[in-house]
Amino acid sequence: MTTPTIAGSPAEEKVRLPLSGLLALFTAGFLGIINETVPAGLLPEMSDSLGLSESLVGQTVTVYAVATALTAIPLNAALKQWGRRTVLVSALLAFILANAVAALVSSFAVLLVARFVAGVGAGLIWSNLGGYAARIVPEKLQGRAIAIAMAGTPIALSLGLPAGTLLGDAAGWQATFGVVAVISLGVIAWVLVSLPNLPGEPEGGYVPFAAILRRPGVPSILLVVASLMIAHNILYTYIGPLADASGVGDQIEWVLLVFGLAALLSIGVTGALVDPHHRRLMLMSAFVLGSGALVLGFAQLNPVILYLGVAVWGFGFGGTATLFVTASVRAAGTDGVQAILVTVFNLSIAGGGVLGGVLLGGLGVTWIPWVALAIMVPAVITTVAGRRHSFPKWPQSS
């Protein structure tokens, strides 16, 4: 395992976090989420432009997630000997290609292909993000390093997506994809100068995915991830129609901003407390996210209820990326678990997108929060029960 540079000779002296490298990883994760979710904020405009229903256009999120889920494990196995920086740059190149196509072509079929390519890139990024961060710092700082690297996910939901929505409103939805392509090019340069090209197989060697799945605690963690992400994505992909039902459909960027600011607060709490209070934070996230879905069940009664529910939901969701990666790496004993985590994560996003579309087109938007709440029940139960292997108290004695 690569050892970071320590300032000074005494072992106890403070170790500086490699912030430039961690922030490059942060930005790569930020782009992964922006690529995945930007259609959620642009559904009405994309629907009008393409002449398709919102539920059908919402499947551009589903296709992205399916691509990530289908390719994360086989691609990571195939590229296990590649340097991690090489893998990351390759994924960013996929973002550039896919978003350039989406910015220039108005065919829905071509757009779906581009979204699939971008999803492949995202699978490579998310499968390596947390492990990359953990390997460039000492063990005692791994939780904090993972928190910084993974914070790009909720910050993209909080600030990036509302900004993308505003840009789409001002310049058209295709302009948003074009800007993402240009930013991806800049991030490649940043990655090349700030991150070491770590070997693909860290010390200890490659662990087969089947062996990882047999590790105690890993299946329970994956169940929680699946339940929570299906519930979250039902809400998130169709937040536009939910806002319409509450009478504030023209305020979607502000609704997303409230979600994001609450998520930012959650990120701060998680980053500060993830190592000593990991279990408590996971329990809090599961309960709070479920509570947010409950409040959103009454959102059609008053816009204030919508904003309150979005804030509660955002606070519950904000730190989950860090919590999931930290829990899975600790339970599995290898960062190879991230490819499995990414697969489950994105199959759940795809499932949420499909289920939300069915609900929207069938029973109506008002059912979405209640179904999300029902799906959260197994997540809460499993989190509470996983005190030994899945979500134990931390830190362990060193």
Topology diagram in text:
Layout: H1 19-50, H2 54-57, H3 59-78, H4 84-104, H5 108-135, H6 142-150, H7 152-171, H8 173-194, H9 209-213, H10 218-237, H11 239-245, H12 252-273, H13 278-296, H14 303-317, H15 320-332, H16 337-361, H17 368-385
What would your notes on this structure say?
By secondary structure, the chain is an all-alpha fold. The chain has one domain (19-385): Up-down Bundle (Growth Hormone, Chain: A). It has helices at residues 19-50, 54-57, 59-78, 84-104, 108-135, 142-150, 152-171, 173-194, 209-213, 218-237, 239-245, 252-273, 278-296, 303-317, 320-332, 337-361, 368-385. The radius of gyration is 20 Å and the shape is globular.
- Category from helices, strands and their pairing: mainly alpha
The CATH class: Mainly Alpha
Assign the CATH superfamily. MFS general substrate transporter like domains
Series of secondary-structure elements, N-terminal to C-terminal: HHHHHHHHHHHHHHHHH
- CATH architecture name: Up-down Bundle
Find the CATH topology.
Growth Hormone, Chain: A
Tell me the radius of gyration.
20 Å
Strand content: under 5%
Short overview:
The chain is mainly alpha-helical and 398 residues long. It has helices at 19-50, 54-57, 59-78, 84-104, 108-135, 142-150, 152-171, 173-194, 209-213, 218-237, 239-245, 252-273, 278-296, 303-317, 320-332, 337-361, 368-385.
